[in-house]
Amino acid sequence: MIALILYxxxxxxxxxxxxxxxxxxxxxxxxxxxxxxxxxxSLQTLQRGLLPRELIGRIxxxxxxEYVTRHTPPDIxxxxxxxxxxxxxxxxxxxxLELLNLMHFHRAHSRFHTTISPWTELRLALDFAGLLxxxxxxxxxxxxxxxxxxxxxxxxxxxxxxxLCTASERSLDFLKVPNxxxxxxxxxxxxxxx
Length: 194
Description:
Layout: H1 2-24, H2 32-50, H3 53-59, H4 62-71, H5 74-113, H6 118-145, H7 151-171
């Protein structure tokens, strides 16, 4: 009798597992558009706002530190270092947040809308994991040692994130509509203005 109950419980558990797996195999329709828009926004924020070399050079430029240490009193130097530390922490946290948004897109929906090989998906997963780990390490370094603690790691992380953005851009490329021209002010036949 106990064996029969165990077999019935196992059968019910397997049936429930199959039911859950069968329901998860479909791409959710609701929320797809917002996820694509969010992923595109994260990609643009990274490419245009957070990863340009000029911005990174400006935030982590040691010449500013050298100038401040030579020409200002200690209280201004402390304020400068506090501000740069805050800015560098905000930068790395924002990069990490945008990478998480892109990772969520790739993990949840990219495979339903683009043709990505399993090898590419694995490589992307490892790239995301490595970048997220690098962001956490940078965050700890900035917090404990200041914004000038790891300049090579900052540039390596930014370069790796830029490469990942290029791969993500290819995944989101289908959102760009080719050969669509904006409306013009020219009137059509019947004097209807578009």
